[in-house]
Amino acid sequence: MNPRDVTQVLLSTGSGRVGAVFLTTLVLVSLFVLIRFPLDFGPTRWNNPASWADNPKAAAPAWTRLWQGNQAIGHRVYQSQEPSASTPLADLEQRTYTFSYDYGGGRAPTLMALSVVDVRFASRPTVLTLQVRRPDGRTLTLYQTVVRGPREGETPPYLRFQDAPLRVNLSSDGDAAARVREFYAQQMGVALTVEALQGRITHAVFGTPIEGAPGQFQPLPGAYQFTLTAVTGASSDVIGNVKLVMGGSVYGVMGTDTLGRDLALGLLFGFPVALTIGIATSVFATIIGASLGMLSGYMAGKTDLVIQRFTDIWSNVPLLPILIFLIFILGQKLWLVVVLMILFGWPGLTIVVRSMVLQLRSGQLVEATQALGASKVRIMFRHLLFQIAPFIFAQMIFFTPGAILAEASLSFLGLGDPSIPTWGQILENGFRTGAVYVGYWWWVLPPGLLIVVTAMTFVLLTLGLEPVVNPRLRENR
Amino acid sequence: MSLIWTLAIRGLTLLGVLFVVLIMLVVALGATGFSDRMLRAIIGEEVRGLRTSLAQTIRDPDQLEATLEARRRDLESFYGLERPWYSRLPSMVLRVVKLDLGSARTLRSFDGSSRVTDLVLERLPYTMMLITTASVITAVLGLWAGVKLATRAGTALDRLSSYLSAVSYAVPAWWAGILLILLLAFRLHLLPAGGLYSTPPPEGGLARFLDLLWHAVLPIFTLVAVSLGAWVYTVRTMVLNTAQEFFVTVARAKGLPEGRVMRRYILRVASPPIVTNLVLGLAGSLGGAILTETVFNWPGMGRLFYEAIITADENLVVALTFMFTLLYVAARFVLEVLYVALDPRIRYGSRT
Predict the structure, then answer these.
(1) Is A326 close to B179, i.e. CB distance below 8 A?
(2) In A90-206, at which residue ranges do the beta strands (DSSP E only) sit?
(3) What is the mean pLDDT of chain B?
(4) Looking at the structure, do residues B144 and B52 belong to the same domain, yes or no?
(5) Given this model, what pLDDT does residue A477 score?
(6) What pLDDT is attached to residue A285?
(7) Which of A240, B15, B158, B296 is found 20 to 30 A from B308 (Cα to Cα)?
(8) Phi and psi at residue A106, in whole multiples of 5°?
(9) pTM for the complete prediction?
C-alpha cells in the first residue's frame, strides 16, 4: 500500500478520523509554541520566580467567575510608557501616570505591586510618589522614593533600574503599612496596630474600619484612582515603563500555581515536548526493533538464535523500575529518558516482525527473487520490508503513547528534567505541594487530561489503522 | 520430559533477566562512583560505632585514632575500595542480592530501624497485598466481562468496550488515582484519601483489619480500573477467535449446552493466549503499583521508592529497583508454570 491509500483507509474509520483531527491539532499547537516560545523557556521563564512575581498565587482560571460570581476578583495590570500629563514646575517637570481601578466590593485585591523600569536622569534624581484617591474623596499616599543619586565617578546620564526594575510589593511592604496606618490615624481617627495590618494592607486601602472590630475592614466599592507622580529635573529625563498590578483571585485561561506561574504557558510548552518524546522514541525504537526482527527472521541460524535469546531477556526487563533507577543515577535529562526508552522499547516489535518474516520467507515471492539472484540485503529491504511496512507503521504509532506515558510517570515521581517543563512535571508539582488536598483542581486536572488526550490520539490512530494491517477487515468494510 | 525442559528454558531466561538487571545496576553504580560513596558511608558508620565503644577502653587519643585508622584501612581493603570498581562487581552483585546496602539516609521503618533490608522487607507485604488483590479482581472481572462481551460481539456495548479499552490504555494510573481522590474523598467524602489506617487507628484486631481494607478500597479500585479495559478487550478477542473454530461448531451441533461449550471448548482452548496477555500486562501493573502507592500514600515498596527518590537515598533506590525486578521475575515464573499447566501442547512435546 502506498501512503495515500493508508491515509484513505485511516480516514474511512471513525476512530481514525477523530485521531487525525486530534493529531493535527496537537501538531499545530506544537508548531505555534515552537515559533512563539523561546527554547530556553524552562530555565529563563518557567523556573524563574522573578518572571511570575506579579501574578496571583494559586488563582483559579478566570472563567470560573461564571459560577464564583462576585466572590472572584479579576487580575488587572496597568502599564504605561507615556505619562498621562506632564506639567512644568518651576525649573522641574512633574509627570503623572493615572490608572483607575473599579473595585466592586467583595474580596480585596490579592496583590498590589508597582514596578518602574529604566529611569534616566541628567542632574536631579527623580522623585516617585504613588497616591490613591478613594471613592470617599480621601487621598492616601502609598509610596514615595527618591531614585539613587550619582555615585562617585559616575557621569550623566545616570541610568537606574535598567536590568532589575524597581519593584515594590505594596500589599506586604512595611513602609506602605506605615503610610496606611498614618492615613487611618490622621483622616479617620482610627489607630491601627501593626498586627491588625499584617497581610491586610489591601483590605485597609480598599475599605473602611469596622467599629469595634480591630483589623476588620468594610469593603468600600467604587472607582479608585491611582496616580504615580514623577518629579524630574529636566524634560530630557526618561522614565521607561510604569506598571501597576492589582492581583486578582482568578487569572488567565488556566489559572496559576502556588508560585504564580501561568499554567496556560506551561501547558502550552508541554505540547511540543510530549510530541517530541513520543515520536522520537517510537521512530527509533521501531527502526531498531524492525531491523533486528528482519535480520533474525531472515538470516536464521546463529544470528537468529543470538538475537532471539537476547530479545527474550531484554523484553522482560521491567521498564519503570529500571528507568527510575537509571535516571536517578545518571541524571535527570530528557534526552536520556528518550534514549533509555528507545533502548528498552524495541524488543516487542522484534519478536513479532521475526515471526512475520519467517512466514514470508518461505513464500513464493522470496523464492522467485532468490532465483533471480537478488542479494539478501535487497530481498530484506526491497521485498520483505515493503510487505510488512504497514504493520510496522501501525506498531510505531501504537508505541508512541507508551513513551509519552512513561515520561509522564517518571516526571510524576519527581525525576523530570528540571530545565524542560512537561505536563507530568506540572502535575507532580501540584501533587507534591498538596494541590489535590486543598482542591486546586485547575492545577492537576488539565495536565493529566492533556496527557490522556495525547495518548488517546495515537491509540485512536492505531485503531483506525487496523484495516491497513489486517486486510480482511478492509474487504469486509 | 519436555515439560521440565520448557520450564527450565523459561526459568533460565528469567534468571537471565535478573542477571542483566543486576549487572546494569552495579555497572551504573560503579561507573558513576556511586558504589564508592555507598561503601565509604558504610565504613564511616562502622568506624563511628567502633569509636564510641573503644573510647571506653583506650584513653590515649593518639592511640585511639591510630587504631581507628587501621580499622578503616582494614575495612577499605575488605570492601575492595583500593581496587577499581569493575574488580568489585561480583561482591557488589552479592550485596545487592542480599539487600546488604547499609542504612537509609532519613527514612525509618515503623519500629525505627534505618537498615535498608528492614525497610524494604517491612514494606513488601503491603505491596504484595495491593498487587495480588488487584490482579485477582482484574482477572476475574475481565474473564467474566470478556466472555459476556464475546457473546454479544458487534453490539453497541461491544463497540463501546473497544473504546473503553483504548481509554484505559491511555489513562495513567496515578492520574486516575488523583481524580478519584478529588471526587470520592474530597467532594463526596465517601472513602479515605490515603494512608493505611485512620487516625487514630481503631482498637481491636478485627476493627483494625477492616480499617485497613477500607483504606485499600480506593488504591485497589484504581489499579483495577486502569487495567480492566484492556484486559476485558483481550479476553473478548481471544474468546471470539476461538469461537470461530470448527470444533466449537461441532460441539454446538452435538447439542451441548452453551455454558458447557463456553467452559470446556472455548475458554479451555483460549486460556493459554489469555495467560500470555496477563504475563505481558504484568510489568505494567507493577509500574502502576509504584505510582498508585505514591498517590494514595500507601506504605508499600512503591511509596518507599518515591520517598527514596525525593530524599535522594541511593541505597534504597538500588534495593527497590532490585526488589521490583525480583517481584516481576517471580510473578512471571508463576505465570509460566500456569501456562505450562494450561497448555497441553507443551506437555505432549509438540511445538507451540
Answers:
(1) no
(2) 92-103, 111-121, 127-133, 139-146, 158-160, 166-169
(3) 82
(4) no
(5) 38
(6) 94
(7) B15
(8) 75, -140
(9) 0.84
Count the domains in chain B: 2
Residues B159 and B254 occupy one common structural domain: yes
- Burial profile A69-102: b = 16 or more Cβ within 10 angstroms, e = fewer: eeebbebeebeeeebeeeeeeeeebbbbbebebe
Q: By residue range, what is the domain housing residue B15?
A: 2-97
| Cβ–Cβ gap B174/A412 under 8 Å | yes
Residues B60, B148: one domain? no
Reply yes or no on whether the pLDDT at A275 is more than 90: yes
The residue among B66, B97, B128 that closes a domain is: B97
Mean pLDDT check: name the lowest of A59-63, A69-73, B40-44: A69-73
pLDDT band for position A424 (cuts 50, 70, 90): very high
CA distances from B289 to A404, B126, B177 (A): 18, 11, 11
CB pairs under 8 A between A and B: 134
Sheet of A139-146: strands edge to edge?
Answer: A85-89, A92-103, A222-232, A127-133, A139-146
Q: Which region holds residue A301: left if phi is over 0, alpha if psi is between -120 and 50, else beta?
A: left
Q: Are B21 and B139 part of one and the same domain?
A: no
- CA-CA distances (angstroms) from residue A99 to A78, A112, A225? 7, 13, 6
**Same domain, residue pair B180 and B126:** yes
Q: How far is A417 from chain B (nearest CA, A)?
A: 14
Decide which of A70 and A417 is more confident: A417
Q: A325 in contact with B at a CB cutoff of 8 Å?
A: yes
Q: What is the pLDDT of residue A26?
A: 94
Q: Is the per-residue pLDDT at A94 higher than 70?
A: yes
Q: Is B275 on the interface with A (CB under 8 A)?
A: no
- CA torsion A413-A417-A419-A421 (nearest 10°) is -60
Whole-number pLDDT of residue B349: 55
CB atoms within 10 A of CB B92: 24
Q: Are residues B170 and B303 in the same domain?
A: yes
Percent of chain A at pLDDT exceeding 90: 17
Residue A184, amino acid:
Y
Report the SS3 class of residue A230: strand
Kindly tell me if the per-residue pLDDT of B202 is higher than 60: yes
Whether residue B350 lies inside any domain: the answer is no
For residue A105, the one-letter residue type is G
Nearest Cα of chain A lies from the Cα of B310 at a distance, in angstroms, of 7
The residue with greater pLDDT, A133 or B346, is A133
Last residue of a domain, one of B48, B70, B97: B97
A288 vs B266, more confident: A288
State the cell numbers at A463: 485503531
List of chain A residues whose C-beta atoms are within 8 Å of the C-beta of residue B294: 412-413
The answer to whether residues A84 and A98 touch, using CB atoms and an 8 Å cutoff, is yes
The answer as to whether B338 is a domain residue is yes
B17: nearest CB among A313, A330, A427: A313
- Kindly provide the residue ranges of all beta strands, DSSP E only, lying in A58-138, ordered along the sequence: 76-80, 85-89, 92-103, 111-121, 127-133
Across the range A345-355, mean pLDDT stands at: 88
Give CA–CA dist B176/A451, Å, rounded. 12
CB half-sphere exposure, A79, CA atoms < 13 A: 6
C-alpha cell of residue A109: 485585591
Bridge partners of residue A117, in order along the sequence: A241
- Residues contacting residue A239 through CB under 8 Å, at least 6 positions apart: A83, A95, A116, A118, A119, A126, A230, A232
- Return the bridge partners of A94, or none: A87, A231
pLDDT for residue A282: 94
Residue B192 lies in a domain: yes
Q: Output the domain CATH number for residue B165.
A: 1.10.3720.10
Task: Note whether B268 and B164 are same-domain residues.
Answer: yes
Q: Does B34 touch chain A (CB under 8 A)?
A: yes
Residues B256 and B338 grouped into a single domain: yes
The CA distance from A380 to B156, in Å, is: 43
ipTM of the complex: 0.83
Q: Give the pLDDT confidence score for residue A75 in this predicted structure.
A: 85
Q: How confident is the model at residue A473 (pLDDT cuts 50, 70, 90)?
A: low
